[in-house]
Write a structure and sequence with these properties.
The chain is an alpha+beta fold. The chain is built from 11 helices and 6 strands. α2 packs antiparallel against α5 and α7 runs parallel beside α10.
Length: 348
Amino acid sequence: MRSLLPLSLCLLLACSPESESSSGDGALGGKGGASGSSGQGGSSGKAGSGGKAGSGGTAGTGGTAGTAGSGGAGASGSSGQGGGGPACGLSTGKAACDTCLDASCCSQESACASDPQCQLLLDCVAKCSDPSCTNDCGSKHPGAVDAYNNLIDCFSGPCGSSCNNGGSGGTAGTGGTAGTAGTGGTAGTGGTAGAGAAGAGGAGQGGSGPTEDPFETYRQQCVDKINEYRASIGLAPYERWKEGEACADKMADHDADVNIPHDGFNQGICSPKGNGQNECPGYGSPDALNGCLAQMWAEGPSPNNEWSIPHGHYLNMVGNYTYQGFQVNFTRVACGFSSKGWFLQNFQ
């Protein structure tokens, strides 16, 4: 089961500079070129002068008055120059982000840019400052939700580091514990001539300490934060699912390598993987974990407690909902982390 990415719906628009919409502006792109000016009509023709009398012959009849000359066709206006917007139709207002989106998410950008309902949804979300407002926008434009979410999905994956503010570096792991010192050698026995010299004790080899998990603090923080949200609505805490953490780490590494959220889960690259997954793609440092979880929880409950795209992350954190006619009840969570800046939660 694939859930939405943990991006607040405002990321693509509300975080970019606001601009007044005007005629001729490309949707979220650069402004369109000025329309060509229409050609001016030619001046009216003057009335023809009367004909002069023929010399030597019969007097010429007066020439009929010339009809008014029709205006010359004005030069057609030159077509306006194309606007300077990005190649695929959308812009966030950040040059590095736009470059990445055009290179990695062009099909998703074009699909949304060519869909009037998707543009209306983007415009609606840009004015929102809370989850209730963004949910209302989705309700007003339900036919554009898939195109919008496909764009957000790509926006947060390949272009996550270019379009989001990176977190600080991860905490360095501490070294292993020192090994036990070797015991001294037994004293040498004396020879026939006097007492023998004491045997030199062999130097003890330092023991290799156990490998410390550099993400241990974050794993526990992840479970604790989810349980804090659960407690706020009267739910029992999730158990920390340690047996699933190694597979969760592999999935986070895999998804970072292919730049596709949930790919490891959908492909079943390892086990145990659980029955649901939330993911924070391209967030950089695990220090950004709490912010990612807050965005997921802000999606809020769905109508009739049935799984739906705008509420998927929240429902996995709650762990009690209906999915395609089946009742889902999660009791534990494994938090996985990659040194490449991706982290996720597998639920079972």
